[in-house]
Design brief:
With 289 residues, this protein is α+β, with helices and mostly antiparallel strands. It has ten helices and nine strands. The strands form two sheets. The chain has a five-stranded antiparallel sheet. β4 and β5 form a beta hairpin. The termini are far apart.
């Protein structure tokens, strides 16, 4: 007589099961870059803000991370995971003279634009060599830079597996925001696909869901905690930083491709969001992880 299957229904408690469900079903990963750096003391990165989620894995030596709440030193087996908009600085730590590290930038967001990393109660993760993810991260680095499409697919699964591993190790999440108004969900989808259009306006978006501009702004702010203009600028900025990192297109060309009315306005919006100019961002992209 065959043995009865065991479906391990009680293997995960309700909280962990729900956290994993949200990660795998509600969030998507959009890769920006993945690179390996070999640095020597006194290497450092001055205070900055990244426009995307930032993971940093030291593989040799000690990394000192400065945050506005204090500083921490990370060794191989530990890694940094920061939500976008977190001000930080980096330098070689301890007695190290060499520092090797793998840097990964991506967005982990749901359809409302809310970040998974914003829900994490800590910015420090752990990763042992037994997990096998170090080799997978190196694989991702090669794929992302040689075959972007394959890199995106590999990155989606790898980043989610990395975060799932942290959940299994006890990472606690703040409660996620509830599903919002379906009208705004449709607007967000339109903004994500048509962000580069200079004709995209509050008036047009409001008209599509049969609201006045004032009603639309209030509803949008309530659902996303951002104004329509700020949300649209963030979408454009994500694409702009990717182009600044990966192409040699001029700042004027990038401004036009991302939907900014002029390169002057692009400079103003870029500085307001990231604290530097587009040219300054591009200049530091090779040294700033």
């Amino acid at each position: 007589m065959p043995e009865r299957s065991d479906f391990l229904e009680d293997y995960l408690d309700a909280v962990r099961r729900q956290s994993l469900r949200e990660l795998f079903c509600d969030y998507r990963v959009s890769m920006v870059s993945c690179s390996y750096f070999r640095n020597h003391a006194p290497w450092s990165v001055n205070w900055r803000i990244c426009p995307d989620g930032f993971f940093l894995f030291p593989t040799l030596g000690t990394l000192r991370v400065k945050l506005e709440t204090g500083s921490v030193e990370l060794k191989p087996g530990q890694f940094l995971m920061l939500n976008e908009g977190i001000r930080h600085a980096l330098e070689v730590g301890g007695e190290s003279t060499r520092l090797h590290q793998l840097s990964l930038h991506c967005h982990v967001t749901n359809r409302w634009g809310h970040s998974f990393l914003a829900r994490c109660h800590t910015a420090i993760g752990t990763l042992s060599t037994r997990d096998g993810l170090f080799e997978s991260l190196k694989e991702l680095t090669c794929l992302k830079n040689r075959d972007p499409e394959a890199g995106q697919q590999r990155g989606e699964s790898l980043v989610k597996e990395l975060l799932a591993l942290q959940l299994r190790k006890g990472l606690h999440l703040a409660r996620g925001k509830q599903e919002g108004d379906p009208r705004i969900a449709g607007v967000l989808k339109k903004m994500e696909t048509e962000f580069a259009s200079c004709d995209l306006s509050v008036e047009e978006l409001a008209r599509e869901i049969q609201l006045t501009p004032v009603q639309f702004r209030k509803l949008f702010q309530r659902e996303t905690h951002l104004s329509p203009k700020r949300f649209l600028n963030r979408l454009r900025m994500r694409h702009a930083t990717s182009l600044l990192r990966q192409t040699t297109a001029s700042v004027k060309q990038i401004a036009a491709e991302c939907g900014f009315a002029s390169d002057h306005y692009f400079h103003l919006a870029f500085r307001k969001e990231l604290g530097c100019t587009p040219s300054g961002y591009r200049l530091n992209r090779m040294s700033d992880l």
